[in-house]
Design goal:
- By secondary structure, the chain is α+β, with helices and mostly antiparallel strands.
- The protein has two domains: 160 residues, Bactericidal permeability-increasing protein, domain 1, CATH 3.15.10.10; 263 residues, Bactericidal permeability-increasing protein, domain 2 (Super Roll).
- It has nine helices and 24 strands.
- The strands form three sheets. Strands 1, 8, 9, 10, 11, 12, 13, 23 and 24 form a nine-stranded antiparallel β-sheet that branches. Strands 14, 15, 16, 17, 18, 19, 20, 21 and 22 form a nine-stranded antiparallel β-sheet that branches.
- The termini are close together.
Length: 459
């Protein structure tokens, strides 16, 4: 796993297989800053991958073949550069210094050998919708070796043959090691396959929909997001539209830029609505200065309530959403509109509940978005006044202006607490195991949201 993680950050946001359901649009754009970061953290796994085994060197000693054991003591990669190749993938250029020990006679021979590596990795989409990376070409270049121990005991001719042996072995094995490292990366990318939980009974799955678009400046991936409730995909009432992320959005110099379309937000809130998690019951208490939700408080506003309930009884607000919340994305401004139906019930003396009246409510909320580790989260606050309309009444005439004051006290804060707890759970963005977003920034644009972020790997 450790080997794959270094270069695995190159394609950290490639998603798992596609599903034929609703297709909210997401675009992930990996940029040059990510390659610079990986160039640093990728040195250690590359060094380990290059620590290959060299077979015995056979040389003639008279008419007898003399085997000589060779061991690589250390591989140091002082330089690793990764760059994008338009329409192909990523180019790796590395410089490595090999320290070798040759066990010959009483005094071992110490050698240092500088090696250069040039490899091109093709990034493509597999038929099942998963990412696949492969080495399309690889070359090893050798500098002049030098001895630092035991050189006097070896003849120049023997040293020439020894170095030819070492270089021939490394020329084959080093590129194979790089290829194996990439294969390990593909295994690591497989951790993207599967469902990420959104709630107890809901999940989200991402998938590549076509081949990545690769330029000299970055890789862009078109991604579908499918949300599931009880194993069934959430399908928008209308077909999702193709989402195109404009160039030059987000933070300049960010490692990764993610574009999240309006359709993704519509699907997420439709899922919450269908799951019923936005519904809540607000229960009053008889002895509370902060929760005057009882028949005594209502009786001061509605005389018929006081007549029917001479003794104080708790009141319950059953809040149910008849329609999915509507999220609106405008430049630097995200809002959420809720239209709950609120039934007001009082506990009767026989422990049954009696319906007093019901309200159609409209609540406009400001939606603030943030990213924590790999999840997009939200918090809300009320914009303006809550709008109330009496839907039905079993207690005669109701003055909505007076009820409005009570609703501001007993309805608004419990609704916000409930909604913010749900949105605080968050929805997973495309990610790899143990990979988190670092210092993310969120920008709201007309019809879409952009996340610009660095990357952090935590083992």
């Amino acid at each position: 796993m450790a080997r794959a993680c270094g270069l695995g950050l190159l394609l950290l946001l490639l998603p798992p297989p596609a599903l034929g359901a609703s297709m909210p649009g997401t675009v992930v754009r990996l940029q040059k800053a990510a390659l610079r970061h990986v160039s640093e953290i990728g040195k250690a796994p590359l060094q380990r991958a290059l620590q290959v085994t060299i077979p015995y060197f056979l040389s003639h000693s008279g008419e007898v073949l003399q085997p000589t054991r060779i061991q690589i003591l250390n591989v140091h990669v002082p330089h690793l550069h990764l760059g994008f190749i338009a329409d192909l993938g990523v180019r790796l250029l590395a410089a490595a210094n090999f320290t070798l020990k040759v066990f010959r006679g009483a005094e071992p021979l110490g050698l240092t050998l500088p090696v250069g590596l040039l490899a091109d990795a093709r990034v493509a989409r597999a038929s099942i919708g998963t990412p696949v990376v492969s080495i399309s070409s690889c070359y090893a270049f050798f500098g002049n070796s030098s001895t630092f121990q035991g050189a006097k005991s070896a003849s120049p001719a023997w040293l020439v043959l020894l170095q030819k042996h070492i270089k021939a072995v490394l020329r084959n094995k080093l590129c194979l090691s790089v290829s194996n490292l990439v294969q390990g990366l593909n295994v690591h990318l497989g951790t993207l396959i599967g469902l990420n939980p959104v709630g107890p009974e809901s999940q989200i799955r991402y998938s590549m929909v076509n081949a990545p678009r690769i330029t000299d400046d970055g890789i862009s991936l078109d991604i579908n997001a499918v949300l599931f409730l009880l194993g069934k995909p959430i399908v928008l009432p209308v077909n999702a539209t193709l989402f195109v992320l404009p160039q030059h959005v987000g933070t300049q110099g960010a490692m990764v830029t993610i574009g999240l379309s309006q359709d993704l937000f519509d699907s997420a809130f439709l899922l919450l609505h269908k799951a019923g998690t936005l519904n809540l019951d607000i229960t009053g208490q008889l002895q509370s200065d902060t929760n005057p939700l009882n028949t005594s408080a209502l009786g001061q506003l509605i005389p018929e309530v006081a007549r029917q309930f001479p003794e104080p009884m708790p009141v319950v607000l059953k809040v149910r959403l008849g329609a999915s919340p509507v999220a609106t994305l405008r430049t630097s401004n995200a809002t959420l509109r809720l239209q709950p139906f609120v039934e007001v019930l009082a506990a009767a003396s026989n422990s049954a509940c009696q319906s007093l009246f019901s309200l159609d409510v409209v609540v406009n909320l400001s939606l603030q978005l943030s990213v924590s580790k790999v999840k997009l989260q939200g918090t809300t606050s009320v914009l303006g006044d809550i709008q109330l309309t009496v839907a039905s009444s079993n207690v005669g005439f109701i003055d909505t202006d007076q009820v409005h004051v009570l609703m501001d006290t007993v309805f608004e804060q419990p609704l916000l607490d409930h909604l913010n707890a749900l949105l605080g759970i968050g929805i997973a963005l495309p990610n790899l195991v143990n990979l988190h977003y670092g210092t993310p920034e969120v920008f709201v644009h007309e019809g879409y949201v952009v996340v610009s972020s660095g990357l952090l790997y935590q083992s």
